[in-house]
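Blinded run. Sample ID left blank on purpose so nobody reads anything into the name before looking at the predicted structure. Input follows.
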Amino acid sequence: DLVHLIENSSVLHNEKKVRAIVIGVIEGLTAMHQRGFIHRDIKPENILVSEIDKGNSYNVKITDFGFVDDIKSISKEKKGTRGYMSPEVINRCATSAEGIDVFSLGVLTFILLTSEFPFDSPTKDDELYSLIIEEKWDEYWKKVGHIKDVSTEAKQMIQGMICEDTHKRLSFEQLRNCAWIKKVTPS
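Blinded prediction complete.
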């Protein structure tokens, strides 16, 4: 799983490698959503990866479908893993299937780039997440650690993935068109 790869390689903090993994997860989740299902538990333990091309690309597989829901009837239950759950899942008012998985992927992307969670809990009581709710991104980025080496494009994409407002949260189509995803890094 992705945890094993993180522990035994140089994936963390390497934007090119993280990008390859994130693209694979986006494609897998897009395929699920097109077939009418939402995963609800995107986290490192549920992502299988195998290196292709000496780590320049990865074969990515999504696993553990224990919390999967039908997109047409999203459960109001708190399904998922704490730390990766979107605010609407925590508040039991989920309406956007795509937004739930995008949020979890945003948390995962942040962790892969920084080795840290972006906040303790996506609630107004969390000091860091309250800055996100208020859209005080400059202040947020100053307060989170190990972020200085993360590109502006990655930060902008993450902002669109972990924002509280589901109407502002990026869709998978928008993610595929983000500058960070489209960025070509020379080998």
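Unblinding after everyone has recorded impressions. Strands lie at 37-38, 47-52, 57-62, 69-70.
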